[in-house]
Give the backbone structure.
Amino acid sequence: MEKEGRNGASGPGRGIPIDRRSALRLLAAAAAAIAARPAVRGAETFAAAAAPSRGAGETRPLGRTGIAVSTVGMGAMITRESDVIRYAVDHGVNYVDTADCYMGGENERIVGRALKGIRNKVILASKVHIAPVDRMIQSVEKSLKSLNTDVIDIMQLHGIGTEGEVVNGYAREALRKLIDQGKVRVPGVTTHSGQETVVRAVMKHGFYKTVLVAYNFRSDAGLKAALRKVFAGATGLSAAIRDAGAAGLGVIAMKTQAGGYTMERGALSPHQAALAWVLENPGVATTIPSMVSYAQVDENLSASGKRLGWGGKKALELYSRAIGDRHCGLCGQCKGSCPSGVDVQDVLRSLAYYDGYGQADLANRSYRELADGRNALPCFSCGTCAVQCRLGLPVGRLARRAHGLLSRTA
Ligand code: SF4
Ligand code: SF4
């Protein structure tokens, strides 16, 4: 089968409606051209639309890669219908994220089918785990085949959590070779534990140009602070993201909707409000909410260019109240505090896949991936939970629920 090339005549932003070409964008273009100078070989081929735009179809520069990304991207992790991905691209999404391990490899093939004929409208991101150099290269070559393309725009180290992984020599050598061979354009990382450490380590050590973080209104500041405009004086992950964006890193936010639990709609739906909150942080370039239906694409795209506003804050308050005792903010602050070694954050992340996203397979798989002795089995013989959650979650009860639901096939 003929592979879809990335260097077509049309740039990544060409599918976005004409009203983006606002006066604001023209004014911003000169500044963005300096701030977002391509720092990546090959980036000049898709640098044409690197200036930000506002309103519906909003775009922002992806750090200094020279790439402009729609602020609402497509998290394809649980998308089974390739037509939903095509629909998203047709309606202004120009960033699609997948991974070699999603759905046991099938997800990359679904994305590959979705992008047939429209590959040049999309910034395509996938992932690779740290391994010996040859194995990493083989893994990326397999991804290229599954995605039916000759180049992956953003190739990210999957799920790293330490500074040591940021400076890992195998990973850098493999990615350098892949970039030299023209198979990868931009090296990045993804993280959902030790996130602040990873973001700051990437800023410190260079090489990686993007970082994908789990980030939402429950990430660090608490709801009250989250509902104020706290980013200028922020601490924690919000500050790290703000600083990373200012330093030229392309920050991509995942898990933006705090689990995706369903609720009644208000002025903005809870999911639109959650997206709008994430995008208030100037350090965030794009978001990749998981989308499995046309309705979700419409709902999320409607949040593009919207400010949080009073209605959005109200929606977030209600949403936060509804999920308050069950959703882990993945802040990592309880790391290492279980005396029995339970990996609380990853246990609760798996539970959110089950309860929030409604993805039993993904929840089971993610729970099974926990290292030996890190699952929640000890919680059944533990008197009082010693883990102090920043959000006041009943950790022991939730962890027992996770094990009861997710260990059956483990
Ligand atoms: S109940 Fe809490 S302290 Fe006890 S094993 Fe589970 S997570 Fe650890
Ligand atoms: S359980 Fe609480 S403290 Fe631990 S990662 Fe989740 S939100 Fe943070």
Notes: The longest helix spans residues 133-147. The pocket of iron/sulfur cluster (ligand 2) is lined by residues 328-334, 344-345, 348, 389-391, 393, 395 (CB under 6 Å).
